[in-house]
Structure formats: C-alpha cells, structure tokens
C-alpha cells in the first residue's frame, strides 16, 4: 500500500524533491503541520523540471505551466519569481532559462580575478569612474588615513564571461599609488597592480550583509532593484600595518555565494 501523501492547501498531492539532498533545507521548506502555500507546491514541481531541462534550458510559458499544474497564472508567476531571486532561473529576452551554478568566491585576501578564474570563467571589469578628492572624516575614521589627504576613488562593474555580476568601489590614498590614473588598466586586477608596485597585503577586516541595490546600482549592474545583494565592506592594511584600501563590493545574490575556511 503506497504511503499517504501530504495535503497541500486542498490541491492535488505533489511529489517533492529529495529532502535529504546535501544542502537542502530541512523538510524542503514544508512546515510541521504539513500544509504549504499553493505557489510553493508549484515551485517544487518547477524545480524538479529544471533538473530535467539542464543549464540554459527554456522553461514553458506561464500559461503552459498553469495548464500543466492546473493553477492560476499568478500562482505560477510567484513560483517563477522566487526561483529567479534564488538564482535558479534567469530571464533571457522574453523567455526564462535554467541558470548555471553560482560563482563561489572565497572570503580571503584573494582578488576577484583569481576567484573567478579558478572556476573556469573569464573575469572582467568595466570602469565607471576614477577620480580623486580630499579624504572625508568618515573615511579617515574607518581607515586611519589623514583627513583631507588626496584619495583615489575607483568604481568598476564586475564581469564574469561578460555578464555583469557586481559593483566594486575602492578607496586608496593617492600617496600610495600616485600614478593610478596613468598606469592602471581598469580591466585588470587592482591587487595585481599593487603587487607590481611592491605593495603587499598584510591583513584585512571584512563585514558582510544583505542589502537591496540603490536605483543607480541596479542600473549599473543590470538587475531589478528588488533583487537581494550581498555587500562586503573591507578595510585592508599592508604588511607594516599601514592602511591600504577601503573597498565596498556589491554582488548579485542570485549569482554569488561565499566560502570561508575555519580552523579551531
């Protein structure tokens, strides 16, 4: 006799993805009372469909999915919307396709370039602005720089295989790299440039949080303002303990995850 299936808000029973898969949420998001919203049942079915289609596969239209699962198009729309926010689906033109795996970036003193190359992707950057200004009080308090001393501000869009995946703002004292505007290729690694100048990293403090992009940031990265972002603040020092850089890195939450090695 087959095992009874979980009722789902008076909808027909559904089969759920393997709840014990490594990294899967406990009970695949099903609450203890065993009832879930209708859209979530549809989301589980679409998630199973993604495994069949594979990366780059085009999912059926909202109308087709609604007919297949016998639900309203708005129910399908909500399910697809969540899968897009999670990075499992991507909008492409007028269609929606299965996304590839997220880029995994280590929380370490490695550059963005190194992290992306290790995953077989081609890193790149598009220059937004490179200017200089007197160091303001908040930046001086954070970094230990002197208030009023000249500071470079380097802002670039981060690319992976020509896809816009983030936005990076770097602040560094002009005295450390006086020819940054003349010698530095904005599409290259800033850390590589510093190494060529004989500057080595010693240590850094990082803080990670989730945010929503501002309208300007969303426009530069090419994402909807409602897309969750991962924001990393970093303050770096050289091997002598002197302040080196202050970096604000904004990454698409649907395209990035981060790893860290911990040792007791």
Automatic annotation (TrEMBL):
Protein name: GntR-family transcriptional regulator
InterPro entries: Bact_HTH_transcr_reg, Chorismate_lyase_/UTRA_dom_sf, Tscrpt_reg_HTH_GntR, UTRA, WH-like_DNA-bd_sf, WH_DNA-bd_sf
Gene3D superfamilies named in the record: Chorismate lyase-like, Winged helix-like DNA-binding domain superfamily/Winged helix DNA-binding domain
Pfam families to which the protein is assigned, alphabetical: GntR, UTRA
Record domain HTH gntR-type: where: 36-101
Keywords: DNA-binding, Transcription, Transcription regulation
Phosphoprotein recorded as keyword: no
Tagged with keyword Transcription regulation: yes
Organism: Streptomyces canarius
Region (Disordered): 1-30
């Amino acid at each position: 006799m087959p095992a009874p299936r979980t009722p789902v808000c008076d909808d027909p029973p559904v089969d759920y993805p393997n709840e014990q898969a490594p990294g899967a949420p406990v009970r695949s998001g099903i609450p203890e009372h065993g009832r879930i919203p209708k859209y979530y049942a549809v989301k589980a079915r679409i998630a199973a469909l993604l495994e069949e289609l594979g990366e780059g596969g085009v999912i059926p239209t909202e109308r087709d999915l609604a007919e297949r699962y016998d639900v309203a198009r708005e129910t399908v729309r909500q399910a697809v919307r969540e899968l897009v926010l999670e990075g499992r689906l991507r909008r492409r033109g007028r269609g929606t396709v299965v996304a590839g795996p997220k880029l995994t970036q280590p929380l370490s003193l490695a550059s963005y370039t190194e992290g992306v190359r290790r995953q077989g992707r081609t890193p790149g950057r598009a220059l937004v602005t490179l200017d200089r200004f007197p160091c303001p009080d908040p930046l001086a308090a954070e970094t230990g720089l002197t208030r009023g001393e000249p500071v470079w501000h380097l802002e670039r869009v981060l690319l992976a295989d020509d896809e816009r995946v983030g936005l990076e703002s770097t602040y560094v004292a002009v005295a450390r790299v006086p020819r940054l505007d003349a010698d530095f290729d904005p599409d290259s690694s800033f850390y590589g440039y510093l190494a060529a100048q004989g500057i080595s990293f010693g240590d850094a403090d990082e803080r990670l949080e989730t945010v929503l992009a501002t309208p300007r940031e969303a426009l530069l990265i090419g994402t909807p303002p409602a897309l969750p972002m991962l924001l990393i603040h970093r303050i770096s020092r050289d091997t002598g303990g002197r302040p080196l850089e202050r970096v604000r890195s904004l990454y698409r939450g649907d395209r990035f995850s981060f790893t860290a090695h911990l040792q007791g």
